[in-house]
Every structure is written in C-alpha cells, then in structure tokens.
Amino acid sequence: MINKKYEFYISSFLMTLFMSFVISRVLVFVNLGFIKDFFLIWLNSWGKAWLIAFPSVLLIIPFVRKLMIKIIVQD
Questions:
Q1: What integer pLDDT is reported at residue 1 of this predicted model?
Q2: Helix axes 7-32, 38-71, angle to 10 degrees
Q3: Are 57 and 16 in contact (CB under 8 A)?
Q4: Residue 42: which residues within 8 A CB-CB, separation 6 or more?
Q5: Residue span of the structural domain in which 63 resides
Q6: Is the torsion defined by CA of 14, 16, 19, 23 positive or negative?
Q7: Taking the CA atoms of the chain, what radius of gyration do you get in angstroms?
Q8: Rounded to two decimals, what is the model's pTM?
Q9: Total count of domains within the chain
Q10: What is the pLDDT of residues 12-62, one digit of tens each?
Q11: Rounded to 5 degrees, what angle do the CA atoms 25, 27, 33 make?
Q12: Full 3-state SS string of 12-42
C-alpha cells in the first residue's frame, strides 16, 4: 500500500480525476450535444481538463486551508 504521507497527493489526484471526468462530459454534451465522435471529443477534453485541474488543486489547496482556518470558529 501507499504511505499515508502521500495522502494529499493521492486525494488531489483522485478528486481532480473524477471532477474533471464529470464536468468535461457535461460541458461537451451541453455545447455539442450527443454528436458523432462524442466520446473521442469528450476524452480529449477530459485529458486537457485534468492536466489543468491537478496542478491547480496542488497550488490552491494550501491557500484554501489557510482561509478556512480564518473562517471557521474554533471551539
């Protein structure tokens, strides 16, 4: 199994993989409809979306965590 110290990277990888999967499919369908080669166009879009999503999440999550610490009331 994978060491727990990589949890941040693995969860970021999986979250961006699934989110980009869903969002890219919906957006391709909304913009083009179910056309010929829909799945090829969607897979192409998904790959590009994931290439942007994964590094973006790695950069943004530390900022979001700091922001949440300021927003959340501590008991």
A1: 82
A2: 130
A3: yes
A4: 24, 25, 28, 29
A5: 4-71
A6: negative
A7: 16
A8: 0.76
A9: 1
A10: 999 999 999 999 999 999 999 999 999 999 999 999 999 999 999 999 999
A11: 85
A12: HHHHHHHHHHHHHHHHHHHHHCCCCCHHHHH
As a 3-state breakdown, the chain gives helix, strand, coil percent values, each rounded to 5, of: 85, 0, 15
Question: Could you give the C-alpha distances from 38 to 7, 13, 50, in angstroms and in order?
Answer: 34, 25, 18
Give the whole-angstrom CA distance, residue 12 versus residue 23: 16
Q: Which two tokens stand for residue 71?
A: 């927003």
**Token representation of residue 59:** 């950069």
Q: Classify residue 21 by burial, with Cβ atoms within 10 Å: 0-12, 13-18, 19+.
A: middle
Give the Cα separation of 42 and 40 in Å (integer): 5
Please tell me the distance from the alpha carbon of residue 71 to that of residue 13, in angstroms, as a whole number.
26
Instruction: Write out the two tokens for 72.
Output: 């959340």
